Amino acid sequence: MSAAPSAAGEESQQGLQFIFAALLLLSFTLVLLFYLRREKADDESSRLRLAPGPPGLPVIGNLHQLIGGLPHRSLHLLSAAYGPLVRLQLGRVPALVVSSPALAREVLKTHDLAFCSRPDLTTWRRLSYGGLDLALAPYTPR
Q1: Which residues lie below 8 Å from residue 58, measured CB to CB, with a gap of 6+?
Q2: 55-69 pLDDT, tens digit each
Q3: What is the CA radius of gyration of the chain?
Q4: Is 114 domain-assigned?
């Protein structure tokens, strides 16, 4: 009679060990993927000469730094720390924050063609006649 409870206890212990090993393997794989992705991002950013900005978290980017009812104050603190041009990652979308009037004039007048079009997304192309709808069309002479 005492053999049956010990066998059930051994089976549950083996099940817990299997779950622990699976979670350990999954966490190791995720850490490895994030590390490799960060290495790739570091290689790309070293070639591109991007504006300075705070490091972001893997999924939400820098959204955690803009919390609160007054995000313009958070942006002011970031511009005080990193300069008048700050690169942020808002989720998966990169953003450039310009906090100097002279640089804003430069961005909006001189480099307006680089910043005037919306990103080319597959969903928008399918919903807007191949990206040619009035609201979602790219900036072209047409």
Answers
A1: 34, 37
A2: 888 888 898 888 778
A3: 25
A4: no
